[in-house]
Fold this protein.
Amino acid sequence: MNLTLASADGARLGPEMAALAHSPLAIRGLTVSYGEKPAVFSVDMTVTAGAMTAIIGPNGAGKSTLLKAALGIVKPLSGSVTVFGKPLAEARGRIAYVPQRASVDWDFPTRVIDVVTMGLYRELGLLGRIGAAHKARAMAALERVDMDGFATRQIGQLSGGQQQRVFLARALAQGADLYLLDEPFAGVDAATEKAIIAVLKTLRDEGRTVVAVHHDLSTVRDYFERVVLMNVRKIAEGPVDEAFVPEYLQEAYGGRLATAQIDQLSLAGA
Ligand code: ADP
Ligand code: MG
């Protein structure tokens, strides 16, 4: 593949600029702070297209904050986000987001089908109407996660695993190119975990890009090709074999993981 791009004025871009232009999500110098102490500090990240990337790090490491900044939900103190080579505002429609489930609170009754069609409002605009074609798309997405039988149920009455499948269906209905998921497997049953990973791998096989905050270190090697290890700062980024190694795990987790555990994890795929 030729990594040198010609820009509009005919000048040649270097390999670094070309990588940025091609990347589904390129983050540079990102710092986010809620108070005095930054939650994310000076993070660079270049997501590889058509791969599954895990964002890993201890509780409070800034993983959710990083995703939210990538989506423009929280405003960074400094840094830049480009999506498929464009500023976030221009390419936001190509991203689907599945938030951390615990952060969604269903106080008023909402049907499953409505949760899924809500994902289409960005495309429709606030005044757009959901038509038959949109409903069909929503139902097809529910079918992909085996939840089509629940379309008229209240979301609040479903189990955690079922809710998570519905959120994934909402993301699928958008037909996005980049999927950002925050701990999609947290608190779900084994069947849901299997169903979700199967759908994510299908998306990857279709050439779409998946980035997930992931908390279960024992499944990293089975599920992902690339990892970003972080603890406020980025510690490592790359293919699992290069970045998911004892040295970096130790640096990210410190005393929170026993050394024996770290050795076991990183040797699991060897
Ligand atoms: P992770 O997802 O890795 O567990 P978070 O991004 O949720 O980490 O949080 C990073 C840090 O920012 C934590 O110290 C957390 O307490 C703090 N934080 C997260 N969200 C907020 C918020 N809305 N207001 C203030 N502090 C926050
Ligand atoms: Mg989080």
About this structure: Confidence is low (pLDDT under 50) at residues 1-11. The pocket of magnesium ion (ligand 2) is lined by residues 63-64, 100, 182, 213 (CB under 6 Å). The chain has twelve helices and ten strands. The CA atoms of residues 11 and 98 lie 39 Å apart.
